[in-house]
Amino acid sequence: TLRKKIKKYFSEELNVKLPKFYGQGSYMMNTMVTPIDGEYDIDDGIYLEHLKDTDEKDWPTPSTVHRWIVKATEGHTSEDPVDKNTCVRVIYKANYHVDLPIYIKKDDESPKLAHKSKGWITSDPKALTDWFLGEVQAKGDQLKRLVRYLKAWKDYKEDDTKFPSGMILTILAANYFVSDYPDEDDAALIATAKEIHTALSESFSLVRPVVPGEELFDNWSETRKSNFLNKLEALVKKGGEALENQDKTEASQKWREVFGSRFPEYQPPEDESKGNNSAIK
Questions:
Q1: Is 58 a catalytic site residue?
Q2: Are 56 and 110 in contact (CB under 8 A)?
Q3: What distance in Å separates the CA atoms of residue 209 and residue 131, rounded to the nearest whole number?
Q4: Options 41, 83, 130, 185, the catalytic residue
Q5: Which residue of the set 43, 44, 124, 155 is catalytic?
Q6: Which of 7, 87, 115, 238 is geometrically suited to a Cys-Cys bond with 101, CB 3.0 to 4.6 A?
Q7: What pLDDT, in 10s, does the model give residues 87-130?
Q8: Global pTM value
């Protein structure tokens, strides 16, 4: 519906070629988790087709194209659209929002994102999605599940200690995925987390696998790096204890220390819980 409204605005108000759209982020990667608190978001990229054959020096400012999308989406929900630096956000009552970043992609060039404070900057989320889906194709759907587990862990454990973004966790999971446990997500998660911890302990570095290929930990302080390594170490330790514990009730409690209440408590089957009484009879 938002796409239709935006197309209508470009046709009737701007009288230009209609934009194209491409979903991006965890929604397209199928790695989305619902946050414990706060809103979840869907990202839908808008590609301005009527400007793709013009020189960048002739492009309107990012603020101008942002205003177009604000105007196009006004009144869509009861809250006004929020004009952020990197996107226009449409907020829904059901505790989620749709982010609308705006791009221009010239043929044979990487897309440029309309960033209100930085200008037109190189950014290609579609390439990142394609890269990740290629990793999934090569390594299996378990990789997507591990990303969701890592995001759920971050969601529960993040407090004053800032974790990496979901995107960074996604790339780390793909880069250090351990394929030895195809039928055991719990063991695969802990093995992969251990690999990530080992790699970052040796060199705390991660390069975006697609353009612009920047160092993703560039602005991290030594304290923040150390804190995240400690969190990873705790995940490996607690998960290892859960894996080794033969008592399912106790093991589930260990996992709840990792994921919180979204991980279910183990409830023994009725016949199992009454086993001792049956034996006495």
A1: no
A2: no
A3: 8
A4: 41
A5: 43
A6: 87
A7: 999 999 999 999 999 999 999 999 999 999 999 999 999 999 99
A8: 0.91
